[in-house]
Amino acid sequence: MNLKITNPATGNIITELLCNTKEDIQAKLNALRTGQKAWSKRPVQERLDCIVKFGELIKENSEALALILTEETGKPLQQSRNEINGAHSRIDHLSQYAEQWLSNEILVNVGATHEKIVYEPLGVIANISAWNFPYNVGYNVFLYALVAGNAVMYKPSEYAALTGKQFEKYLHLAGVPEHVFQCVIGDGSLGQVLLEEDFDGYFFTGSYATGKHIAQTVAHKLVPVQLELGGKDPLFIAEDVLDVKQAAINAAEGAFYNNGQSCCAVERIYVSESIYDAFVDAFVAEVGAYVIGDPKDESTFIGPLTRLQQIDVLSKQVKDAIAKGAALKLGGQPIEHDGNYFQPTVLVDCNHDMEVMMQESFGPIIGIQKVTSDKEAIALMKDTPYGLTAAVFSSNEQRAMSILQEMNTGTVYWNCCDRVSPNVPWSGRKNSGLGSTLSSQGIRAFVQPKAYHLRTI
Ligand code: NAD
């Protein structure tokens, strides 16, 4: 069977890739088992050298790689370049800290008894990935896993398969052995095959529905399962922001960057009533000025949606919100054009009866709601089954901290949003996931501690 790769900006098929079969997966898994044993015995620095070389090759070829990413996902070219350059920070961070994080911990070293912790790799892990930021979410998993001494079977999303094959090509060119990293091609049915095989860990980035299914399916194996899932991330704009217009510009970027297809995109906005009208006016002016068009055009900020079916999800959210009393300030419809285009959409006077405030939109659409107190803002921000990020814009640090402390989310932001850094863990709570990537926590996800109790007599 072939996987058709479609350009979301035109609807044209770019190419077809041969899908892997169950038999391929079994053969590759056996080979990875052998490869992993040798790989894990190599010093951390040697494994790091391969990753650093990989980063250099990606940099050297970044323009061609950005074009591939843009063609298969519809991401505007400038944003594809940003993603590729930004993801490199993971490599710099790993180079600086991986040896320290993976070294043995000697806890008792006096007298006849010695105690230490040795961090051993998990073995061969399956990495089932998403399409929206394939460099960021891919690097978060497979680079850390490789440096920790694991072998990786990487299944890119069917919407980012060409990019996945490039990862494989450049990792092998950089010295990661063939039987240590393998990219396999297919849709969810191939992901399902991976769940049936005996991997030593499952590392998933994608939707809550698929993540829950994966956790349930592999539960009996009792191996580590890590889930980086969706969100419905709130942003509260307090009336004491220094500059309402600037707050609106920053909030709009947080909501509409990558066409709203970010796990940590701002998905709902609450605004203090005294600045509500001014904020809405500035927000609508900003979003209304976004350049929509061909993602290969340098000036484009909003390109097509990656998945055609998301147009129906967004249209339904708009209809539902209007039926329940929201006012449509901008957009609201698919754009009559080849490809999967949807108008950047702003709905105001929203409330929590509306799907747009409760269900992940994952597109260029935002709901805005007026609030009269911090207490009300906190209650609304917390009213979600998700727990990825939450943000507050305010000039008062103490006020912002007291709100952010209330949030049951893996990440909180003050005067910023839609941001990921390799220095701090990236994790979701509740329906947004399980476990952490990035930082020292992110590498510990790919090792298991072995406790040594050693007597010299
Ligand atoms: P998805 O769940 O549709 O697909 C993700 C991956 O799972 C794909 O590779 C797909 O082929 C595979 N898959 C589908 N069915 C499967 C099955 N039965 N068994 C095994 N694998 C299966 O998600 P998506 O559309 O690729 O990604 C969008 C979602 O990902 C959004 O909800 C977004 O918020 C989330 N996301 C989260 C993070 C994070 O770090 N928290 C980052 C990026 C994206």
Assembly classification: single chain
Specify the CATH homologous superfamily of the largest domain.
Answer: Aldehyde Dehydrogenase, Chain A, domain 1
- Distance from N terminus to C terminus (CA atoms, Å) equals 63 Å
Number of domains: 2
CATH architecture descriptor text of the largest domain: 3-Layer(aba) Sandwich
- Poorly predicted tracts of residues: none
Q: CATH fold name of the largest domain, please?
A: Aldehyde Dehydrogenase, Chain A, domain 1
Listed once per kind, the bound small molecules are: nicotinamide-adenine-dinucleotide
Biggest sheet strand order reads 12-13-14-11-10-16-17
Count of DSSP strands = 22
> What class do helices, strands and sheet pairing give?
alpha/beta
Can you characterise this structure?
The chain has 457 residues and is an alpha/beta fold. The protein folds into 2 domains: 252 residues, 3-Layer(aba) Sandwich (Aldehyde Dehydrogenase, Chain A, domain 1), CATH 3.40.605.10; 182 residues, Aldehyde Dehydrogenase, Chain A, domain 2 (3-Layer(aba) Sandwich). Helix content is 41%, strand content 22%. It is built from 15 helices and 22 strands. A hairpin with a 6-residue loop joins strand 1 and strand 2. The model has no long low-confidence stretch (mean pLDDT 97). The structure holds nicotinamide-adenine-dinucleotide. Nicotinamide-adenine-dinucleotide (NAD) binds next to helix 7 and helix 8.
